[in-house]
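User: Fold this; tokens only.

Assistant: Input:
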Amino acid sequence: MIDAARSLKQASRWKPWEPVLWLLAFAAPVLLPTHAALINEIAIVGLFAVSLDLVLGYSGIVSLGHAAFFGLGAYTAALFAKHVMPDPLVGLAVAIVASLVLGLVASLTIQRGSDLTRLMVTLGVALILLELANKLDWLTGGADGLQGVVMGPVLGTFEFDLSGRTAAYYSLAVLLLFFIFARRFVHSPFGATLKAIRDNRLRAMAIGIPVTSRLTVVYTIAAGLAGAAGALLAQTTGFASLDVFEFHRSADVMLILVVGGTGWLYGGVAGAIVFKLMQDALSSITPQYWTFWLGLFLVVLVLVGRERLFKPWTWFGKGRS
């Protein structure tokens, strides 16, 4: 027991390179001012990927409906800003609460069944919300989206500018805050039980771990983080559309974790950086066929393996199996 507690405490300690990494992230909008909007997108997608990693990488729950929480967060933040008050932090909190409630209800769908069942059921939740947002056009704007969303300054001081620098810093700050929370969460005794459930659910039940309640908690928390990512998107762009509920949102974040790696929170952030940079570069070169080249990269990644692809010296010798 003492060794386990010591191991968790050691794993939760920050490595020397981690503060440097985050300092570089916050310096990026200044060092690359013309790419502030891209940095903002990376921070939002990174938070979205971290939320899915809690479910997939640490709990072993396969989900293709994570866009449901992302979209609900986006629409909640946009509607709150348009009809109640434009304060972004209050709107972010309201969006998180709404996503937490949906996550709590939706957690009932992932308690039983196979991975294929969970894929279909979670996807169904997102499609239901997509159709609701489309039909309730008097509230959501329908296919035209929710327009005319004007956000107030962050902390009453920092106005959202056209260059996107304020948006980038806002999204990076929220990403760092929730990353610290997620990091502490997965390295806690609670997180250790999640890994036990992921590795062998029956064995976890046999040793007395309350599997159902654990999965409910982690799925609800992951939904809240996904809702925060959606809220950031709506607040920094001033727009919410049906696109936030689309299947490709859930598929893209799944691919991001394939690129960055599951069961490692930095995998979601690294995957988001690689995915968005490749998307930006390829779409500027071949606007019509950039998805083909991105798909080809993912095929090579799966066939070759992440370690070999990013460490070419392992292609031969001992690194080759």
